[in-house]
Design goal:
Elements lengths: L12 E5 L2 E2 L5 E3 L2 E6 L3 E8 L3 H18 L13 H13 L6 H15 L9 H11 L2 H20 L24 H13 L3 E2 L2 E2 L8 H11 L3 H5 L11 E3 L4 E3 L16 E2 L2 H10 L8 E2 L2 E2 L3 H12 L9 H12 L4 H8 L3 H8 L8 H8 L9
Antiparallel strand pairs: 1-4, 2-3, 4-5, 6-7, 8-9, 9-10, 11-12
Helix pairs in contact: 2-3, 2-5, 3-5, 4-5, 7-9, 7-11, 11-12, 12-13
């Protein structure tokens, strides 16, 4: 018989503590979840029986804190390496350098910790990765999470903390979304935003709360700039903000001293004359390009509502569609692809990969082989 004392201690886990009754038969306390670790640590989560998700979140925080304090052992095997250690190491590394969307990264790492926090790298395989993707519910979102996890494992191994290579299985890439607006659709959105009035007691008021979306829509169409670099932009140079040089006619899409990731380049661009005229007019009463109640505001929620009103609930459009529209319209115009790529702050290869099917000149030279009669004859 196996000696009970030789058994390894159980890892940190949740345990449901049943409710207790008073001597008179009344309820002393409801059932609740408790964190148990090695039989010695007992921490109440203050989460009732129905709040398992809240209890798991507290367990994740506990595990991260525990691994943070533990001494780092070099050259461990996958079975000895806690996933919580790996994710915590990655979070620290990211905190030491600028990150484009720190809140989104923190949310992804939180989800990773919730699922993988009690496992070791030895548990990472095709099956557990597929289970994680099912839990997230979206292949594209799960792929982004697992890319972070893969980078975390790679960084942990590079630091000499794990000697074994672990493969993270990613969901297949989804097809790129290349929906774009027609001119009439853009006009419909602008008209709706400009004319919309707030109603009170069933009557329209003088308040027009959607007009701040007009600069966002026009700037997205005219420049193809990513949404965050539009709504945060200022007409005066401020720390940490893109800014619009109205005198020089240049849109500085990066804040002073900011460095953009290679896949999110944001070079300065000369503002088209028609848009520049609008911006100069807007700047007379506003400090920010997209200003709501005196502050630079993210228009995501309001813009989502406008699209539903104009196109119906089943429309395929998102904020990034304005960038797609800019690239598509410029290709239709017959401008040189290298000029369009520079204007959009993307590589020429990316332009062809995503929008090449909308380039009317893409196959023109090849098609001339049939027009001239060369096709079907061997070249001399």
């Amino acid at each position: 018989m196996e000696n009970y004392l030789s058994r390894p201690p159980l890892p940190a886990r949740l345990e449901l503590i049943p409710g207790r009754l008073k001597p008179d038969g009344s309820l002393h306390n409801e059932p609740y979840w408790e964190i148990r670790d090695h039989g010695r640590v007992r921490i109440s989560t203050r989460c009732g029986e129905d709040d398992r998700a809240g209890a798991e979140k507290q367990l994740t925080v506990y595990l991260a804190s525990k691994h943070e304090k533990a001494p780092k052992t070099k050259n461990k095997s996958a079975a000895e390496t806690a996933c919580a250690d790996v994710i915590s190491h990655y979070a620290k590394a990211k905190a030491r350098k600028p990150v484009a969307r720190p809140k989104e990264l923190a949310a992804r790492l939180d989800r990773l910790l919730t699922y993988w926090g009690s496992m070791t790298l030895d548990d990472v395989d095709e099956e557990t990765c597929a289970d994680y993707a099912d839990l997230i519910g979206s292949d594209s979102a799960a792929r982004r999470h697992l890319e972070d996890f893969r980078a975390a494992i790679k960084g942990y191994a590079k630091a000499g903390l794990c000697r074994e290579y672990v493969v993270v299985s990613l969901p297949d890439k989804s097809d790129r979304r290349v929906d774009f607006f027609e001119r009439s659709q853009v006009a419909a959105m602008l008209w709706y935003c400009w004319r919309f009035r707030r109603h009170q007691y069933g009557r329209p008021t003088a308040d027009r709360p959607l007009r701040h979306l007009v600069p966002f829509i026009l700037t997205g169409i005219y420049t193809g700039t990513r949404s965050r670099r539009i709504w945060r932009a200022s007409y005066v140079q401020e720390e940490g903000r893109p800014w619009i040089d109205l005198e020089g006619g240049v849109y500085h899409r990066l804040a002073k001293g900011e460095t953009a990731p290679k896949n999110k380049r944001a070079a300065s661009v000369r503002i088209p004359g028609r848009l520049l005229a609008h911006m100069r007019r807007w700047s007379k009463t506003k400090t920010y390009l997209v200003e709501y109640q005196g502050e630079a505001g993210d228009p995501k929620k309001a813009l989502t509502g406008v699209m539903e009103k104009v196109f119906g609930k089943d429309h395929p459009y998102v904020r990034h569609t304005f960038r797609h529209t800019c690239a598509t319209w410029l290709l239709w115009s017959g401008e040189k692809p290298e000029d369009i790529a520079a204007y959009m702050s993307m590589t020429k290869q990316m332009l062809f990969d995503v929008y090449g099917h909308d380039n009317p000149n893409a196959d023109r030279e090849v098609g001339k082989a049939f027009t001239s009669g060369r096709a079907g004859r061997r070249a001399k």
